[in-house]
Amino acid sequence: MSKKGDVIVGLDIGTTKVCAVVGGVTDTGIDIIGIGSHPSEGLSKGVVVNIENAVNSIKGAVEEAELMSGCDIRSVFTGIAGGHIKGFNSHGIIAVKGREVDENDVKRSIEAAKAIAVPLDREVLHILPQHYIVDDQDGVKTPVGMSGVRLEAKVHIVTGAVTSAQNIVKSVNRVGLTVNAIVLEQLASSEAVLSQDEKELGVAIVDIGGGTTDIAVFSEGSIKHTAVLPLGGNYLTNDIAVGLRTPIMEAEKIKIKYGCAYTPLIPKEETIEVPSVGGREPREVSRQILGEIIEPRMEEMLNLAYREIVKSGYEDLLAAGVVLTGGTAMLEGIAELTEKQFNMPARRGYPTGIGGLTDIVNSPLYATGVGLVIYGSKDRHHRGRGRSSDVNIINRVIKGIKRWFTEFF
Ligand SMILES: Nc1ncnc2c1ncn2[C@@H]1O[C@H](COP(=O)(O)OP(=O)(O)OP(=O)(O)O)[C@@H](O)[C@H]1O
Ligand SMILES: [Mg+2]
User: Fold this and answer.
1) How confident is the model at residue 136 (pLDDT cuts 50, 70, 90)?
2) How far apart are CA 243 and CA 406, in angstroms?
3) What's the whole-model pTM score?
4) How far apart are CA 36 and CA 67, in angstroms?
5) Ligand nearest to the CA of 189
6) Rounded CA separation 243/403 (Å)
7) What total of structural domains would you count in the chain?
């Protein structure tokens, strides 16, 4: 069980940045006590493609987080995404042994739902209980203690490619850290940016990063659908570089500073300065033109995300609408465009429900990192045991002595 003084670390290995978030467990919840962020190398569309580069990026982020928090990080909760992720619904039925459903019956019903043929090259990452049916009583959230002879568990199962998960673990291990759990990234983000009310009412979270768009649909408090699309903000940057004939680095800066996903919001007369390639003079370009490059690509990505929401069958039942997070959610006009495309309310998702360095992590960029810490605290609590504690007083003392030696000799 998470104890006061425990430290939980979330390691978000994204396509554009690796970020380590250190959360300290307090009496009232979790305080963010450190964060380290390093540009990501060795990943493509959310998947590790070069271990050596990934290791260096992870090391950079973890060292920064250690310095800021004063903690010795030894184990992390890390995320997983990529086009290989598949989510589907399943169910398992068992006969109740006594006349009353107990914890063991619930466990057995979930085990039964798990008994599906998973190809050898894939592994089950999550089994997320949705609800239970006791005899003919549908929609039961907590069946323990109910009378009945038949228990059915409805679950959402997430699977991923074994090799992708192994490469994440390998990269983290090479930095000298152990992996407590690998968590689907949108599941982590949802812990940080969605409220319980939204999950009950019906909500879709769309985490648009640099290389992936991660989607999860919630209704009646449980997860109904998950999907990962191998597209993200990097496409916008490439389109801007080609469309405005400017280097990728400049295109990225222009996107962040002047980008807008909804052209009606751009004043007609506004212009921007665009650096040219090959030492030519910079040019003045209408900001409207930049918007006309971004808008159709963003529409295309949002349409594909909407198709996933339609696949869930809950598109008309999402009373709380859609919550956009991930770095690309910071794009001006994205909520307006999403409302138009999805025909439902949209808002940006910022990490909430934490204390400490909230002003630093108060950005959609850190939804997954912070979410991993929150997930980790619940996971530990659930398991009822503290895994290898990250803060080890002896290690801290040794580290302090080492630093002292390097400084003085
Ligand atoms: N203010 C901004 N406006 C528009 N886009 C932005 C802004 N800030 C960051 N981005 C974009 O957000 C993306 C990075 O987001 P994020 O850090 O969530 O991705 P990631 O986690 O590294 O990648 P992924 O989750 O896709 O593997 C980049 O494409 C970046 O250009
Ligand atoms: Mg991400």
Assistant:
1) very high
2) 51
3) 0.92
4) 9
5) 2
6) 50
7) 2
φ, ψ for residue 83 (rounded to 5)?
-65, -15
391 has pLDDT over 50: no
Query: Smallest Cα–Cα separation from 81: which of 156, 10, 178, 12?
Result: 12
Distance CA 382, CA 93 (A): 24
Residues 102 and 232 in one domain: no
Site to probe by mutation for ligand 1, drawn from 11, 16, 236, 331 as the one with most ligand atoms within 8 Å of Cβ, is 16
The domain of 324 spans 196-351
Question: 16 in ligand 1 pocket by Cβ < 6 Å?
Answer: yes
CB atoms within 10 A of CB 26: 14
81 touches ligand 1 (CB under 6 Å): yes
Q: Per DSSP, what are the bridge partners of residue 322?
A: 204, 346
CB-based contact 153:129 (threshold 8 Å): yes
38 lines ligand 1 (CB under 6 A): no
pLDDT at residue number 392: 42
Q: What pLDDT score was predicted for residue 384?
A: 53
pLDDT beyond 50 at 398: no
For β-strands 122-134 and 346-348, DSSP reports them as unpaired
* Residue 229: CATH number of its domain: 3.30.420.40
Number of other CB atoms surrounding residue 336 within 10 Å: 15
Tell me, yes or no, whether 223 lies in a domain.
yes
Tens of pLDDT, residue by residue over 347-374, are 999 999 999 999 999 999 999 999 999 9
How much is the pLDDT for 30?
97
Angle at 382 between CA 379 and CA 388, to 5 degrees: 60
- Given a contact cutoff of 8 angstroms between Cβ atoms, the answer to whether 256 and 71 are in contact is no
What CATH number does the domain containing 106 carry? 3.30.1490.110
Q: Mind giving me the DSSP string for 339-382?
A: HHHHSS-EEE----S-EESHHHH-SGGGHHHHHHHHHHHHHHHH
Do the domain assignments include residue 356?
A: no
Mean of pLDDT values over 177-184: 98
pLDDT over 60 (residue 406): no
Give me the mean pLDDT over the 160-179 stretch.
98
Across the range 183-200, mean pLDDT stands at 98
Residues 297/282, Cβ–Cβ less than 8 Å: no
Ligand 1 lined by 297 (C-beta under 6 Å): no
pLDDT band for 381, please (50, 70, 90 cuts).
confident
Phi-psi region of 137 (alpha: psi -120 to 50; beta: other; left: phi over 0): beta
Q: CA-CA distance, 114 to 116, in Å (whole number)?
A: 6
